[in-house]
């Protein structure tokens, strides 16, 4: 067998938007030109030492960031509230060194960190302990007096699994925003560190001994029980703004009373920032930037930064009120004219593709912000219609008899697009469905009305009237344990009665169109991210797992390890014109190719850079010419016919 030549890839990025949610932006009070930007996914930090002219990414921090905060007292110290805890960064010899904050529990997520004018640091997050025999636990707030060690210093009168989302200090009061329980205000009597420090970070049941601590808090009744995600306080503590799911609230008497603020646009406020001259800025979920020149009493539209992107963060240069930064789900933007006009900062993040589909001769991509169709004439992607939420599209499918209809499984549910081949006429509507997070779609080729779905953290459902506006769904998990989480599924191409399901803890087979499932011992305990049937030898089934690739020669009944040991395999594709060539996409290890049906493997790098992205999906076109790969570093294609 003549070895296949190396793959030559071309990027298909034009028309896509980078996925780089900017969660937080901070200016260093000790060095006016230093800026830190926290990214949630992809994770990490950006630093600028010249006011945003140039940026550095390789700073050694790779956790998902919620908030970044430079220390007001200690120079060259940065605090990071992260999904994986509270972190302290310190600059040594022009290199940042990171360590988990001393005293902060390793299994305690940090959502916010702030500092009072006198330098005391405060942080909050969420704890999820399960202490036998305890009915309730009090969520804790944490404090550091020296910038080195953190202690729990007080409790909130909310359920233990509630999260602290926002903190602000105004005068002698501490303001705490929670996830659904509203805004709480301390009465000014801070509890000493020693009062609960002996808990060693482990919450205790709320009992009579804790009553005095809990009574130090009052909830703001004007705001009620809702998410309070951000709190801004003026330097003297008299003016406060709270960003909630019910809108913007304002206090002009240091938090004693609050009132809702009428905004000129519908939608939820997402970010607050203040300029040194007293102007206030508000980022909206619609991508609009609002400005107030009367302490937040009234607001006017300043500009629309990103119609398709939420504004997660805003920051104003303390030394220049005209100089603003805004963080969106598509990256970082800068304004030099008080927010009237914006430009994107040099591209950060990646063009992230999640899934691929060929239907009706067209190529579709599911991405973090919707569905795209490839335009070969212009060599760019075009967003496919309106109506989809700005959420990840993780699965695409078309009925076998009607390629003008497209189904999209998204993080916000299942959507149906009509006339999907006519770009500007495509309309999407939510399909009646009780669950979010649709991760997989599969049509029965013998019955175009039968659609199978698997949803996030759950199992499989099906409908026999998929083309109706309100289909009826049936749970299809008999034989699976209640804890089963289906990650992938496939159908025997010669026998639609036989289905395969890869789960987080094993592998299942159904011989009756998902009426009943049986567990297969050979893959028990393994997470199966992808399943594929060899089209030339349907008795051969391949499964990509956390620890490599497995093959069955008897339609999934027994299994053998085949290769890519200790590499997580996330996507598979067969080259039907060359039935011994198999492609495997992996997590963090790029793409691999086998020319002997999976026995030996070679890398198939996308470019000359020494990086290997995660591969989310692979697709070979119906004519066998193109291999497409949707990755965390963009969408790529290779000409398998060797014509380019």
Automatic annotation (TrEMBL):
Signal peptide: none annotated. This is Photosynthesis system II assembly factor Ycf48/Hcf136-like domain-containing protein. It comes from Caldilinea aerophila (strain DSM 14535 / JCM 11387 / NBRC 104270 / STL-6-O1). The lineage of its organism: Bacteria, Bacillati, Chloroflexota, Caldilineae, Caldilineales. One of its GO terms (biological process) is xyloglucan metabolic process. Transmembrane segments: none annotated. PANTHER family: EXO-ALPHA-SIALIDASE, XYLOGLUCANASE (EUROFUNG). InterPro entries: WD40/YVTN_repeat-like_dom_sf, Xyloglucanase_GH74. CDD domains: Sialidase_non-viral.
């Amino acid at each position: 067998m003549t070895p296949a030549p190396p793959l030559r890839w071309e990027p298909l990025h034009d028309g896509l938007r980078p996925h780089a949610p900017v969660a937080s932006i901070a200016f260093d009070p000790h060095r006016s030109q230093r800026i830190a930007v926290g990214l949630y996914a992809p994770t990490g930090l950006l630093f600028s030492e010249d006011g945003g002219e140039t940026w550095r990414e390789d700073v050694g921090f790779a956790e998902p960031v919620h908030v970044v905060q430079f220390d007001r007292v200690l120079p060259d110290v940065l605090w990071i509230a992260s999904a994986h805890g509270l972190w302290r960064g310190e600059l040594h010899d022009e290199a940042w060194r990171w360590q988990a904050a001393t005293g902060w529990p390793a299994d305690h997520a940090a959502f916010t960190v702030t500092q009072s004018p006198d330098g005391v640091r405060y942080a909050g997050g969420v704890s999820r302990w399960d202490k036998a025999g305890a009915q309730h636990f009090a969520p804790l707030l944490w404090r550091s007096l020296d910038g080195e060690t953190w202690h729990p210093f007080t409790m909130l009168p909310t359920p233990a699994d509630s999260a602290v989302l926002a903190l602000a200090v105004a005068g002698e009061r501490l303001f705490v925003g929670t996830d659904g329980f509203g805004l709480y205000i301390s009465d000014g009597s801070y509890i000493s560190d020693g009062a609960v420090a002996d808990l060693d970070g482990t919450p205790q049941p709320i009992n009579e001994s804790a009553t005095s601590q809990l009574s130090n808090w009052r909830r703001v009744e004007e705001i009620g029980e809702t998410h309070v995600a951000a709190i801004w306080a003026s330097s003297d503590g008299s003016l406060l703004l709270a960003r909630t799911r019910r809108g913007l609230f304002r206090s002009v008497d240091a938090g004693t009373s609050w009132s809702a603020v009428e905004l000129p646009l519908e939608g939820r406020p997402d970010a607050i920032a203040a300029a040194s001259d007293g102007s206030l800025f508000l980022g909206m979920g619609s991508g609009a930037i609002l400005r107030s020149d009367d302490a937040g009493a009234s607001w006017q539209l300043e500009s629309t930064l990103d119609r398709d992107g939420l504004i997660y963060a805003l920051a104003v240069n303390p030394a220049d009120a005209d100089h603003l930064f805004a963080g969106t789900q598509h990256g970082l933007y800068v304004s030099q004219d008080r927010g009237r006009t914006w430009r994107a900062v040099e591209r950060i993040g990646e063009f992230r593709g999640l899934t691929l589909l060929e239907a009706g001769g067209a190529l579709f991509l599911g991405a973090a912000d919707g569905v795209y169709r490839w335009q070969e004439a212009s060599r760019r992607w075009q967003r496919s219609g309106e109506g989809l939420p700005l959420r990840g599209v993780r699965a695409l499918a078309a009925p076998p008899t009607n390629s003008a209809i497209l189904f999209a499984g998204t993080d916000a549910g299942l959507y149906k697009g009509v006339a999907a081949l006519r770009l500007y006429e495509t309309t999407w509507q939510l399909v009646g469905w009780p669950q979010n997070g649709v991760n997989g779609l599969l049509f029965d080729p013998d019955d175009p009305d039968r659609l199978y779905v698997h949803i996030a953290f759950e199992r499989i459902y099906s409908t026999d009237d998929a083309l109706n506006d309100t289909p009826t769904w049936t749970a299809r998990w008999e034989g699976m344990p209640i804890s089963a989480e289906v990650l992938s599924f496939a159908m025997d191409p010669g026998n639609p009665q036989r289905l395969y399901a890869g789960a987080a803890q094993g592998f299942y087979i159904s011989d009756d169109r998902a009426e009943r499932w049986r567990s297969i011992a050979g893959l028990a305990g393994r997470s199966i991210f992808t399943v594929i049937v060899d089209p030339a030898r349907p008795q051969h089934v391949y499964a990509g797992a956390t620890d490599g690739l497995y093959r069955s020669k008897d339609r999934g009944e027994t299994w053998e390890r085949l290769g890519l040991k200790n590499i997580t395999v996330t996507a598979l594709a067969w080259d039907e014109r060359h039935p011994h060539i198999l492609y495997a996409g992996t997590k963090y290890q790029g793409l691999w190719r086998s020319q002997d049906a999976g026995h030996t493997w070679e890398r198939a790098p996308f470019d000359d850079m020494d990086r290997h992205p995660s591969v989310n999906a692979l697709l070979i076109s119906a004519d066998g010419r193109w291999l497409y790969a949707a990755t965390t570093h963009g969408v790529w294609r290779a000409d398998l016919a060797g014509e380019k």
